[in-house]
Amino acid sequence: MTELCNRREAKRYQTALRLQQCAVRLTLDHGFDGWTIDDLAAAADVSRRTVFNYFDGKAEVVLGPEPDVDEELVATFVGGGPTGRLFDDLIVMAHEATREKADSDQHMAAVRDAVMNDPRLIQLVHQRFESAAALLGDCIRQREGADFASEKVRVILRLLITFFDDALERTAADASLTFAQHFDNSVADARAALG
C-alpha cells in the first residue's frame, strides 16, 4: 500500500510540475494575459478540471502556491530563535520558505524571467510581497517589540527580496550550485561588502 501511495504522490508531483512548467512557457511566449486555462490544459495534455484539481488559478500555476512556513519555526523565530540574531533568523525562515522548491532551481529562474517580463505578474508578485511582508513584519514586531520601526522592517524585507532575486539570477547563470547555495552566497557577498 505504501508503494502505491508513493507512486501516486510522485505522479501528482510530476503533473503539478508539468503544469507549472507549461504555464511559465506560455507566459514567456504569450504574456500572462495571453493564454487561458484551456490553453494550459492543452499544452500539458490534461483536462481543464485537472488543472483546477492542482491549482486555484493562473497566478498560482505560474508563481506556485504561497510559501508555507512551519508554525513551529515561526514560534521559534518570534521567541527570539533559532540563533538569537534577527537577520540570521530571517535567513533561516527564507530557507524554509524555499525548501520545497529546492529541486526545481531552473524552474524558479524561469518563473523569475516570466515575472520580470510581464507587468501583470509583477503586480501579482508585489501583492504577494505585501501580504508576506505584513505577516513577517508582525512576527518581527512580536519578537523585537511594538516600537521596532516599520522602516527597519521594510528595509530588512527588501534586503531579503534582493537576495532572492540575486540568487535566482545566479541560478539561471550557474546551475552547478543550488538556489539555496546561491542565496547563501548572495547574503555572504552583502555581508562582506557592508563589512
Describe the structure.
The chain has 2 domains: 63 residues, Arc Repressor Mutant, subunit A (Orthogonal Bundle); 130 residues, Tetracycline Repressor, domain 2, CATH 1.10.357. It is 76% helix and 0% strand. The protein has 10 helices and no strands.
SSE inventory with pairings:
Blueprint: H1 2-30, H2 37-44, H3 48-54, H4 58-63, H5 71-78, H6 86-98, H7 105-116, H8 119-144, H9 150-173, H10 179-194
Helix pairs in contact: 1-2, 1-7, 7-9, 8-9, 9-10
Q: What's the quick description here?
A:
The chain is mostly helical and 195 residues long. 76% of the residues lie in helices and 0% in strands.
Number of helices: 10
CATH architecture of the largest domain: Orthogonal Bundle
Output the CATH topology of the largest domain.
Tetracycline Repressor, domain 2
In terms of DSSP E residues, the strand content is: under 5%
Question: Average pLDDT, to the nearest integer?
Answer: 87
* CATH class designation of the largest domain: Mainly Alpha
The helix content, as a percent range, equals: over 70%
The number of E-state strands comes to 0
Apparent shape: globular
Residue stretches low in confidence (pLDDT < 50, at least 5 long) are none
- The CA-CA distance between the termini, in Å, is 55 Å
The total tally of domains equals 2
Largest sheet: none
What's the Cα radius of gyration?
Answer: 18 Å
> Order of SSEs, N→C?
HHHHHHHHHH
Structural class by sheet pairing and helices: mainly alpha
